[in-house]
Amino acid sequence: MKKILILSLTALLGACSSMNSTPQATLDGEVFYLQRIALPPTATLEVSLQDVSLADAPAVTLAKQSGPVKGQVPLPFHLRYDPASVKPGHTYAISARIEDNGQLLFINTERNSVDLNAKTLQPLRLRVDQVAH
Fold first, then answer.
1. Distance between CA atoms of residues 67 and 45, nearest Å
2. Residues lower than pLDDT 70 in the chain
3. Distance (Å, whole) CA 123 – CA 108
4. In whole angstroms, what is the distance from residue 96 CA to residue 126 CA?
């Protein structure tokens, strides 16, 4: 009985490790703004990698990082995505936004295209602009 239990657990652990062996690629960078103001301590940052190939369809998100802001600008980000989801001939872009309690404070206003087929991707710098309220 113990052997069956051990074999079952071993098979289950093997299946779990093979599910986590999906190849991952990463994009690193930082988000910044030009205004000389501090972010509130409750601010959150969201950075997304999206397929923006189709003009008449919503963008498809490949990776997203969101969470509380730690410190002040520049704010680092680290996106993990599956390289198998990158399609030849498609266009990809990164977007960023900073919110406080659901209210948008900063957002990128320019398209930040990224070539995911490049051999080496330099750390990216995304500028966000303040939203008028």
1. 6
2. 1-21
3. 17
4. 7
